[in-house]
Amino acid sequence: MSQPTIESILQEKRLFPPDSDFSQNAHIKSLADYQGLYDRAKADPQQFWAELAENELHWFQKWDTVLDWQPPFVKWFVNGKINISYNCLDRHLTTWRKNKAALIWEGEPGDSRTLTYSQLHREVCQFANVLKQLGAKKGDRIGIYMPMIPEAAIAMLACARIGAPHSVVFGGFSAEALRDRLNDAEAKIVITADGGWRKDAIVPLKEQVDKALENNAVPSITDVLVVKRTNQTIQMAAGRDHWWHDLQKGVSADCSPEPMDSEDMLFVLYTSGSTGKPKGVVHTTGGYNLYSHITTKWIFDLQDTDVYWCTADVGWITGHSYIVYGPLSNGATTVMYEGAPRASNPGCFWDVIAKYGVTIFYTAPTAIRAFIKMGEHHPKSRNLSSLRLLGTVGEPINPEAWMWYQKVIGGERCPIVDTWWQTETGGIMITPLPGAIPTKPGSATLPFPGIIADVVDLEGNTVPDNEGGYLAIRHPWPGMMRTVYGDPERFRRTYWEHIPPTDGKYTYFAGDGARKDEDGYFWVMGRVDDVLNVSGHRLGTMEVESALVSHPAVAEAAVVGKPDELKGEEVVAFVTLEGTYQASEELSKELKKHVVSEIGAIARPGEIRFTDALPKTRSGKIMRRLLRNLASGQEVSGDTSTLEDRSVLDKLREGA
Ligand code: PRX
Known about the structure:
Blueprint: H1 6-11, H2 20-25, H3 31-43, H4 45-56, E1 65-70, E2 73-78, E3 81-82, H5 84-93, E4 101-106, E5 112-116, H6 117-133, E6 142-145, H7 150-162, E7 166-168, H8 175-185, E8 189-193, E9 196-198, E10 201-203, H9 205-213, E11 223-227, E12 241-243, H10 244-248, E13 260-261, E14 265-271, E15 279-284, H11 285-299, E16 307-310, H12 317-329, E17 333-337, H13 348-356, E18 360-363, H14 365-374, H15 377-380, E19 389-393, H16 399-409, E20 416-419, E21 453-456, E22 469-473, E23 483-484, H17 488-496, E24 508-516, E25 522-527, E26 531-534, E27 537-540, H18 541-549, E28 554-564, E29 568-577, H19 585-598, E30 607-610, H20 624-631, H21 646-655
Parallel strand pairs: 4-17, 6-7, 6-8, 8-11, 11-12, 16-17, 16-18, 18-19, 19-20, 29-30
Antiparallel strand pairs: 1-2, 3-13, 4-5, 9-10, 14-15, 15-23, 21-22, 22-24, 24-25, 26-27, 28-29
Helix pairs in contact: 3-4, 5-6, 5-7, 5-12, 6-7, 8-9, 11-12, 14-16
Bound molecules: adenosine-5'-monophosphate-propyl ester (PRX).
């Protein structure tokens, strides 16, 4: 099994129209309905988004301008006043949803908890008051470094309630990665847990926080809040560290939501780019609330009886938009799962579906490929008949995996939504609407209404059908990122200058290669920059290189991706050594460990190749293309005439 290739997708002709029963009850019922919405949004985007904002959300004060576009900087719903925690909680309390399950949590090992809207509201208000008591104010950044437990969602919503932007850092990141992110965001408080369960082991989260804050390495931090989860012994620094349950005791559950300006920052979330330093992607309140809300409603076709489960971690954008904000804004029941599929429990996902009667299931292709390998008997021995819709996200899905998902998990009755989007886009951009758009295995199909997507060359011209090009967006949308935190020039450079603006028109450059077929369907091929996609996680090659060269043995490092059956891509590092260091199996292991401690387990190189020199051009640039060929065992292709020293290449070949 492999990633889709140009040849395989051009041969992919299977078409799956939506089931008529599904369509009849769906929010968007037919291709004609979709087309109507799409055309209307294209003709008058401001009217389209304004109507939705008015009908779908609660505003404390209406905006006076829908869109203020000063490329590449955008404002939506200018001067509108809104609070996303109000839209996710308070407004449901005056309806029958008050006692509906908002959050169903399935924990490890065997723990579980359900919070109704009313209970979740209470906890969020109390915790918001705790934050206030610690001095947190509107605009203060708050770090969240937590396991997948209800308190993670409670913390996010409490930050949103008081207007303190959160910065969630994935619990699998190392202390070093956490420290860099907290420093960049200049966070005031960090919320964590004593430990978290990850694949049958405990991750010592508080210990990592202590390491990150050692020697006052993050001077902006005043307080650390700790949820008791795994009960292991931890150090509590007097005056700085507090137990969540201690502070929450007896605190009032009365906390009115801060009226936020539509453009006030809601959160900053770090993601990898093509430099060594992760970017703080900034999302603001009103536009993000609308975009995450409406995409969840239409793409997952949310109905009041649904039990919706997205398997992502809240440390990623998928967790923000499609575990917490989108589902709760719609008054849905959202499932949160602390575990992960692993050899010791290969059926755990299917058990969760059967236990709670999950109707909508959203996961990543890498997980699907792992399940295929584990064998059909696991899902087949569970009752998955509650499922009615399936989704995938994070990387291209190969048609074989799509077909397996459709047949074995979906019982050939569930539509599949293959959703293309990014941390930067805030919500899903290219996707089927399940009652309306016929699907083709491996294609994310068509753009969401209001999204003007295209495949272009580097001048911004649309390329002909079925020719490869760069995925680009032509018009601003409410969920788009506003800037790179603290670095607006990087925002401009990274997303808006690869395709030079013409006639004052700016085009958003997504960093993905794609093609569009004769039906206008998009086929996303993967990154075109130095960003890898390992098991659906974004990883900058330069980040891994910086981690490697920070080890005393390493003189130079070049990191490339190699296609991998399960993970999509695997990290391969070419390394030259300092002076007296000798290549050895032991050193290879040590370097892998070093990368894990610098970044986290998601960055662990699958392979380290020691070499005397790296192939470079005469101007000293590493020729990664050649390394990519070598890593994947292919013949070195293309022009090698700019190579400074051909013998380097010959040696690398011999070494392989
Ligand atoms: O390369 C694309 C891939 O994931 C990248 C975005 O990564 P991140 O910001 O971490 O967000 C992941 C979850 C939204 C994209 O640039 N990607 C995401 N979804 C798809 C995809 N590639 C192909 N098909 C998808 N459905």
